[in-house]
Amino acid sequence: MLIVGLTGGIGAGKSTAARRFGELGATVIDVDALGHVVLEPGGRAFDGVVAEFGPGVLDDDGRIRRPTLAGIVFRDPDALTRLTAVSHPAINAELVERLAALASDAPDGVVVLDMAILVESDLGRSDPVHRYQVVVTVEAPLEVRVARAVARGAAAPDVRRRIEAQASEAERRAAADLVLVNGGTEADLVRQVDAAWAVLLTRHPT
User: Burial code of 53-87, b = ≥16 C-beta within 10 A, e = fewer?
Assistant: First the structure.
C-alpha cells in the first residue's frame, strides 16, 4: 500500500486535489476531520482534553465546545502545545488503526492523507509501518489564496493571519516530492493531479 501525504495552505487548492485523487481511485483520509473525531465523547482525546482544560470547555450535552477550546489555545501558545500533546497522539493512533485495516483489505491500494499541518507536525509519520512515503503539496500565489478564501466568506485580515501562522510555501516545497502549482483554473489543477497520479503509480511498492 502506498501512503501519500497531501498538504497545502489555506486557499491553495488542497481539497480540490484530494477530491480528484479520490476520483482517480485513492482512498482519501481527511486527517483534519480526525481531529474532530478524537474530541467526541468516547474519542481518544476526549478525556485527556477535559482533564487538561477543565469542564468549562464542555457544553450542556457534555461535548467539547470546539470554538471555546480554539479561543483558549490560539491566544496562548503554551495551551496550544498542551492540546497538541493530547490530540496529536490520539489522531495518529486513529490513523494507524485505519491504515492497518486498509492494508489488510486493499494491500495494493493508494491512500492519500489530506492534512493541512503535515510540515508543522508529526501527524501521519509516528508509526514506521503506517506512515506516508510520498509528500505532495499544492501551492498558489499569496493574493490568489487570499482571494479564494475571501470568496468563500472569510475576512481578508483573518486569512492573512492564518497564512502567517502556517508553514511557508518554501517549507512545504522542501518537504515535498511533488509540487502542484495552482495559480490558474480548477481544470489546470486537475490536470496536474492526474499527472501526479501517474507518477505515484510508478512509485507504488507493489
Answer: beeebbeeeeebeeeebeebbeeeeebeebbbebb
Measured CA to CA, the distance from residue 196 to residue 13 in angstroms comes to 15
Q: State the burial class of residue 206 (Cβ atoms within 10 Å of its Cβ: 0-12, 13-18, 19+).
A: exposed
Report, in angstroms and rounded to the nearest whole number, the Rg of the chain calculated over CA atoms.
18
Mean pLDDT is lowest, of 5-9, 12-16, 202-206, for: 202-206
* pTM for the predicted model, two decimal places: 0.91
**Separation between Cα atoms, residue 113 and residue 132, nearest integer Å:** 8
Domains and CATH numbers, the chain: 2-202 (3.40.50.300)
